[in-house]
Amino acid sequence: MRGAITHLILAGAFILTPLPTLAEGAMRVLECSIEKQCDSSASCTPDSGELVFNMEPIKLDENGAGSYEVSYANNRYEMKAMSYAGPFIWNTGGDTNTLLANSETKFLWHRLTLSSNPEANMQFLNCAFTQ
Fold first, then answer.
1. Which of 5, 22, 49, 74 is the most exposed place for a label (fewest CB within 10 A)?
2. Fold for domain 2-129?
3. pLDDT at position 10, please?
């Protein structure tokens, strides 16, 4: 069952992303709207807003695993990917960020701050690859 879900997610990523953009150096743009936000105690509230992740491949293998440069909201970081469909992982000054595909259009953005008092928050996103 798990393998079937992985294949569906990968198939969705390939359907949503035109083949020329899968080459190294071609920018992938993930346009998202925020649906809700949750804290580390699983308390969730509706949320809204727009978010655009620009993902520029740096070095990828044939499955899309490798490194990207991700930029969003005037920030730029090096990001690792396990495949074209993610998960995508990057650090922002002590915070670990993970972007997970839940389906062809649903993504989860998890941010974890490791400190003496660890904190996490998650945003549920509705997204589409536009490039």
1. 74
2. Lipocalin (2.40.128)
3. 47
